[in-house]
């Protein structure tokens, strides 16, 4: 019988007791520990080959080109800016994740720019989360075997390829590393068997860290509130409190987390200059009409994780039809009805359902994502904890027959082996596209849906391969659909610049500047294009503006130093080359340019404009 206001008893299940048999409790614990070790080792081995993978896509910007990772002097900015502020300081963002940047800073200190070290950290984080899922499932489902099966399903689910094989996807395991222990500490506090106050403090601290890792952590108060309602429901020997009283009790238990959430939201709003900064200006109605398709997408990928991709061509539903709204709505309503019926019958089912459904809610705010990028498999990392527990509840029922294998029902053992093999093969296949840039873009080409996002990926693929003419053709096609898109104009101008078609590069880069004056790279490459056209003054103005927006960017100060040297301003050029060396001490070109100026003017005053015009040094 549940005690009012306390968590249900954490005693062993009847199945645990049955299987202990003559071996006793110690034997069960030993077998459980061995099984858990095998599961964790299997998860690590499934992702082991990712240690040979390279940096892909965002990794190049967030790690290789991120000057904020090179010194602790940038630490305050982690807590006062968007994750991408190092690249676009004036761009309004929505990603307030300071702990993510702290992790990257620590990794940079330890392994530098060696990709294997970054991948190892991500894989180990996933293995640690798998262990936490075991403890969570064991506590909520009251069954060691169910906990083991949940850990197996979670650890080897192929849908996690995006979050584990891709370094920049580590935000998901990082979030779970703090969120699940926070909930476990809450359970210990609620049981009343341990130091309640210490566990509450630990839970709140871990919750704050989870929010600083990723904003999805804000679902924890909802999970606690729902769990409290379930635990306060009527049992066989107690009268059911009224619903208002139950809600009030649940709200009281959730209050400390709500206070922490409010403090976080204030800090976040101050750092991002607003609670949220929409990327898409679709109507709220259009977003709601798109929800069924998005939820069906996530449901399919959780239940059938085959043929996945880093990007998907999904657009907002402006005109609902049978295929894009009605059928997905029917499917989701049927699934919700099934979850509701299961939750009414079984308490454990309800608790697992909360972990499945509630973590999806934050990603339904589709307008904070750019179109073509508002669904990703990595968003299922936390919801799959609930899926794993529901699967474990189903597997627990397969106890028919007296045949035993490894002292377990043969049906269960066989099911575990089949699941492990199938899921392991799935992990190997779905992680392959993250091996390097070539594999990444080739996979995107094969899975392209033909929409603007897919065309942009294909254009980038052609650019990565040096096929600038093919890339330009694709960029032009996208531009006809999205003429006012900054990214397409910038990419097209940059492709023309690399192709040597400077006049075209000038035109599209200038267009990119006018579309979004806060992007420093537009000014930088426009300045380089002006330099190649011989307009040194315009080149100087544009590169200076790029530096004004992003003063700690690599190559910017070097380019300005070259321009000032061409203008005969040797003191200014020397200052810029030294500034470049402060940002990148390994810049041989900046060191050489500075040394040449210093050697040529030892003991001589350097007056701007007094030197003869030097030959151009290409940035």
What is the overall shape? globular
Cα(first) to Cα(last) distance is: 75 Å
Largest sheet: 2 strands, antiparallel
Number of beta strands: 2
Poorly predicted ranges: 1-23, 609-619
In helices, the fraction of residues equals: 55-70%
Discrete helix count: 27
- Mean pLDDT across the residues is 85
Spatial extent as radius of gyration: 28 Å
Strand content: under 5%
Strand order of the largest sheet: 1-2
Class of secondary structure makeup: mainly alpha
Strand/helix succession:
HHHHHHHHHHHHHHHHEEHHHHHHHHHHH
**Overall number of domains:** 2
What would your notes on this structure say?
The chain is mainly α and 619 residues long. The protein folds into two domains: 16-273 and 281-434, no CATH class; 554-619, no CATH class. The chain has 27 helices and two strands. Strands 1-2 form a two-stranded antiparallel ribbon. A hairpin with a 2-residue loop joins strand 1 and strand 2. Helix 7 (144-156) packs parallel to helix 17 (410-430). The model is unreliable at 1-23 and 609-619 (pLDDT under 50).
